[in-house]
Amino acid sequence: MPLTLQQVAEHNNEKSCWVIIKNKVYDVTDFLRDHPGGAKIILKYAGRDATSAYEPIHPPDALDKNLPAEKHLGEVDSASARQLEAAQSNRPKTEDELRVERERANMPPLKRILDLRDMEDVARRVLSAKAWAYYSSSADDEIAHTENLRAFTRFFFHPRVMRAVADCDPSTKILGFHSAIPVFVSGAALAKLGHPRGEANITEGCGRTNLIQMVSSNASLSYSEIANARVSPSQPLFFQLYKHKDKAIAEKRIREVESLGYKAIFLTVDAIVPGNRERDVRAGWEVEDVEAIARGQQGSPRSGELPRKGSDLEEIEEEVDVTGTAGALVLNDDQNMTWKETIPWLRSVTKLPILIKGIQCVEDAVLAAEAGCDGIMISNHGGRQLEYALPSIEVLYRLRRQRPDVFTKLEVYIDGGVRRGTDVIKALCLGATAVSMGRPFLYAQSAYGTAGVVKMVRILEREIMTAMKLIGARTVKDLVPEMVERVDWQPNLARL
Fold first, then answer.
1. What rounded mean pLDDT belongs to the chain?
2. 381 tagged catalytic
3. Which letter, b or e, does each residue of 15-49 get, where b requires 16 or more Cβ atoms within 10 Å of its Cβ?
4. What is the DSSP letter of 265?
5. Half-sphere exposure of 349 (CA within 13 A, CB side)
6. Between the CA of residue 77 and those of 81, 84, 94, 197, what are the distances in Å?
7. Alpha helices of 137-236 — where are they, by DSSP H?
8. If residue 486 lies in a helix (H) or strand (E), which one and from where to where?
9. Nearest residue to 272 via CA among 245, 294, 246
């Protein structure tokens, strides 16, 4: 029997907590203690409609996977559905929503986007404050992220001339799969924060340009929805596995993507706890302050003052949620993974290629090769996890100098700081099979949808081909270590 809003509203506390999502009612009482984001955020919507908060960060099948069937209580009645629709339609827009509308109305045409920085600039203006903070934020003082970008400026070319490069071919193979350029999409969560179609924009864009997409365990679409967004069944997808501490849950996730035709498993090892992304945390408070001012209310108390009241002293002891938009998504991840146990376990549950995402030193690259992994991704998670982790290009350089034999045993990729075609070429000269990019694809799809993804690939393709011809390489196999040199001085840059 359909439920009324009044009936749902009676279940508004931790002893009995019901929520409405897309006109369906769920009893989440028993799930409160297991929710990765904690009970507080669910209780905020107890007895009410939680659709607007739920949809941008959860795939549609999340409730089916996490709640038993008896907790799916049915739909609201037609009168309640009309009331919810009217409430949503009549809801006053926030200051941030109004800002986004203004910026969307004044976006430059796609033909004026010349490089990836232009794309990022547009995304910064048109994204919600929450989405921009989540996508762009990094750990602590964000030095690791900044240095990921700056590190590429310490590598210069030794171009070769008088070589036949008219028929330059930038294509390559990644784990045996064709790629139009030596670039693929890194796993990145919550694409729906930036665009309603989310990861599907990236999937379709990759299909149109012959690129490969790695899908995050924490995608905002279901794995099946992303697979169904492919332009053809043969379009390859890789899977970024955040291994759950419960092996049964982890295995079930692997089985699901295998059945959907995903072609490789990238085990993420550099994000076993949430990174300290303070800009992401502050963004929520800043939005609250803006809305309070817009309503004529007083903003936050001035910072830097010593506590003067009993309530201030009590507030000091109050636990602050510092996980940010999605830090809670990794709270159940396995913090006890080892080379000795985890890789053999993975081999026992899947025949797919196994790659390690998050290698940050030469020693672990060697261990991955010795463990029989099919590849590694050198990455510090875009500077979002451990502050002062070395830039990926620097680790790649050290691996090339200290253990060149590793490149003969597995495929090596890097992720972090790549923004130009010349960055890609530098990595390939040092031995990388390809580079992976996360944020830039999020920015492109957020700003312009699928068209933005295609435009971004075309920009990279043009830049890569130009650099290959000028360095004297007709194919990616012609890119060798002798073509690049690391310098100890830092050039002055117009912009970073």
1. 91
2. yes
3. eebbbbbebebbbbbebbeebebebeebbebbbbb
4. E
5. 20
6. 6, 11, 29, 28
7. 143-151, 199-209, 223-228
8. strand 484-486
9. 245
> Which tokens belong to 83?
């009331």
β-pair type (265-268, 237-241) = parallel
Nearest of 437, 333, 330 to residue 377 by alpha carbon: 437
Two tokens, residue 335: 């913090």
Q: What pLDDT does 83 receive?
A: 93
* Sequence-ordered list of residues with C-beta below 8 angstroms from that of 443, at least 6 positions apart, any chain: 116, 119, 120, 122, 123, 135, 194, 452
Residue range 211-227, pLDDT digits in tens: 999 999 999 999 999 99
E-strand ranges in 93-197 read 155-157, 172-174, 177-179, 183-185
DSSP H or E stretch at residue 19: strand 16-21
Mean of pLDDT values over 3-7: 94
**Which of 57-71, 309-323, 347-361 bottoms out in mean pLDDT, i.e. has the lowest?**
309-323
Decide if 345 contacts 336 (C-beta within 8 A): no
Write out the two tokens for 444: 């492109």
Q: Which one of 96, 381, 413, 415 is the catalytic residue?
A: 381
Q: State yes or no: is 242 an active-site residue.
A: yes
Among candidate residues 11, 49, 54, 270, the one labeled active-site is 270
**Spatial separation of the C-alpha atoms in residues 333 and 211, rounded to whole Å:** 29
User: How open is the CA angle 240-243-248, to the nearest 5 degrees?
Assistant: 125
SS3 412: strand
pTM over 0.85: yes
Please give the DSSP secondary-structure letter assigned to residue 489: S
Q: Which of 242, 262, 397, 448 is catalytic?
A: 242
Per-residue pLDDT tens for 164-191?
999 999 999 999 999 999 999 999 999 9
CA nearest 412: which of 427, 389, 432? 432
Q: For 274, which DSSP code?
A: -
Is 145 designated active site?
Answer: no
Element (H, E) at 364: helix 362-370
| Residue 157: strand pairing partners | 484
Nearest CA to 81 out of 25, 165, 163, 29 is that of 25
Determine how β-strand 172-174 pairs with β-strand 375-378. unpaired
pLDDT of residue 124: 97
Q: Are 427 and 435 in contact (CB under 8 A)?
A: yes
Q: From CA 216, how far away is CA 64, in angstroms rounded? A: 19
Question: Which residue, among 437, 379, 367, has the nearest Cα to 409 in the 3D structure?
Answer: 367
What does the block give as tokens for 456? Answer: 């971004």
Q: Which residue, among 389, 334, 396, 391, has the nearest Cα to 365 in the 3D structure?
A: 396
